[in-house]
């Protein structure tokens, strides 16, 4: 006996839709182990600070950088796994054909938005990596550690947004092909 939940009509949509989505999910699953590393180094910091009275200079910034990086990657993971936010009250109450049109609109608007964000992230990343006269000098945190984490995060935001643009293009092509198949039948 099969379970007929309200989400069953688009259950297959929860699978990766293309090679890029599959790669993102595989890479993200590996990267998710860094959450455990973050917990471990944070535990180390607490131990060093409160038990041995020898706080570290690197744990807080490193844990923040790793966590921030993983949350940035989490956006493309959610899109690849079709776990992104949608208004299910509307989406689940319409027919499959209307859902296809809603998906088409979503992908067009999402592509435009991701493209504009990628453009802005490019400017932000360039500013954090290069001086106004063009010399490579990554922005640093300004702390005792003075790691280039701000520049690395801004570069990662740009790269992830570029990947998101490609995801939207691939998904949009699939949506258009899906509409064509329905029209040809």
From TrEMBL:
A GO cellular-component term linked to this record: plasma membrane
- Pfam families per record: DctQ
The UniProt record lists the Tripartite ATP-independent periplasmic transporters DctQ component domain at 39-169
* Regions crossing the membrane: 30-52, 58-80, 101-122, 151-173
Membrane-related topology note: Multi-pass membrane protein
Question: What GO terms are given for molecular function?
Answer: transmembrane transporter activity
PANTHER family the UniProt entry points to: 2,3-DIKETO-L-GULONATE TRAP TRANSPORTER SMALL PERMEASE PROTEIN YIAM (PTHR35011), SLL1102 PROTEIN (PTHR35011:SF4)
Per the record, the similarity remark reads: Belongs to the TRAP transporter small permease family.
Quaternary state and partners of this protein? The complex comprises the extracytoplasmic solute receptor protein and the two transmembrane proteins.
State its role. Answer: Part of the tripartite ATP-independent periplasmic (TRAP) transport system.
Q: What is this protein called?
A: TRAP transporter small permease protein
Q: Which organism is it from?
A: Vibrio hepatarius
